[in-house]
Specification:
367 residues; two-stranded antiparallel ribbon; 16 helices; 2 strands
Length: 367
């Protein structure tokens, strides 16, 4: 009980420190430009929270989170483009590339703000549920699951590129100017978007922690470690994995939706295979089994991508791949495990020094 109380106290202290850093320190210390970059990084951290749940706890290597990120992002961007265009008008790219005189039928529901907000989360979750039922019921796992999820990301990106008249094609949906009546060119409103993203990250982290600490979280770990034994005990591992996969998809969808007002764009380049791998790399580098590690790792990798890509634009992907390989090969627990490794080594050194050998002289005197 004391151990649990100690962990809970540390968790609350961590949340408090994160809230202070996000809501007080960052806005005061960073310029508007840097704060906008941080908002972008926080969106990737939201995806990492879902990856921590699905991969870190459930063993599901989700290499297709870009799909759900993109679905949420496009759902939000479609509504904002309709709003920017005004009543009875087409979005700017449709006037430029398209031949239609009215909105496509599947765009029209996104004109409703409530429908669009719900779709940013429910649409990715619905797609994940359908895909998960097909995969988990057939007991597809391991590398095969990772390949299938990655193929879905590639298929979605290719489809979006081919629908230039209705999705913007390669360019995507750009030049987002407003966010539910607020002008995104106003620095005050940009800060408001940042605060919304920061609050969403903290809420998703708290939700994920609650799931991990619950009975379901224990069952998810049991399925990861011994799926057949869980099935023998009367549980259906497919349903257990499906819940984690769907929740992670919803988190990625919300991250994509908030990414749009923060950056002002959503395109196939942001949701394909490469972005999906980047999401996983961030969680792996920080520590996929730890919520704090996954969040910090995602922030660090996103920042490093911005910093290093400016200096080495052609070689950044090699740095990224090397980072992933080193993390998995030499530090599978991520950077967050370094503290535990140091503590174990110090404890081992202390035990070794406590063993004082009996000298030969003392033995002779005793004889």
């Amino acid at each position: 009980m004391n151990l649990l109380n100690g962990r809970s106290a540390r968790a609350w202290a961590g949340f408090a420190a994160a809230a202070v850093a996000l809501f007080a320190v960052a806005p005061l210390a960073l310029s508007d430009f840097r704060l906008g970059l941080l908002a972008k990084y926080l969106c990737t951290a939201m995806v990492a929270v879902g990856i921590c749940l699905a991969w870190g706890r459930g063993g599901l290597l989700t290499l297709g989170q870009g799909v759900f990120f993109g679905l949420g992002g496009y759902a939000m961007a479609m509504h904002l483009k309709i709003t920017d265009a005004g009543p009875g008008n087409l979005p700017d790219f449709m006037q430029l590339y398209g031949t239609a005189t009215e909105l496509p039928w599947w765009w029209r529901p996104f004109g409703n703000p409530l429908f669009a907000l719900a779709a940013t989360v429910l649409l990715p979750m619905a797609v994940a549920a359908l895909l998960g039922l097909f995969i988990f019921r057939r007991r597809v796992k391991g590398a095969y699951f990772a390949i299938l999820s990655q193929a879905l990301a590639a298929a979605l990106a290719i489809w979006l590129i081919g629908q230039q008249a209705t999705t913007g094609g390669t360019n995507g949906l750009t030049d987002i100017q407003g966010f539910f009546g607020y002008d995104l060119d106003d620095p005050v409103n940009q800060r408001m978007v940042y605060f919304v993203i920061a609050a969403a990250l903290l809420l998703l982290t708290a939700l994920a922690r609650q799931l991990i600490q619950s009975r379901y979280g224990e069952l998810l770990v049991a399925v990861r470690d011994s799926e057949e034994r869980v099935r023998f005990l009367g549980y259906d591992p497919a349903n257990v994995k499906l819940v984690a996969y769907v929740v992670a998809a919803g988190m990625a969808g919300l991250a994509g939706a908030l990414f749009v007002p923060a950056v002002g764009i959503i395109s196939p380049a942001l949701i394909g295979i490469v972005p999906s791998i980047e999401f996983v790399i961030g969680a792996a580098v920080g520590g996929r089994a730890s919520l704090a590690g996954a969040v910090l790792g995602a922030l660090a990798v996103a920042w490093a991508k911005t910093a290093l890509s400016e200096e080495f634009p052609a070689a950044w992907t090699y740095f990224q791949g090397l980072l992933f390989i080193v993390a998995l090969a030499f530090l599978p627990g991520g950077l967050v495990s370094l503290a535990a490794i140091v503590r174990r080594r110090r404890a081992g050194a202390a035990k070794a020094s406590a063993r004082v050998p009996v000298s030969d002289t003392a033995v002779g005197e005793a004889a």
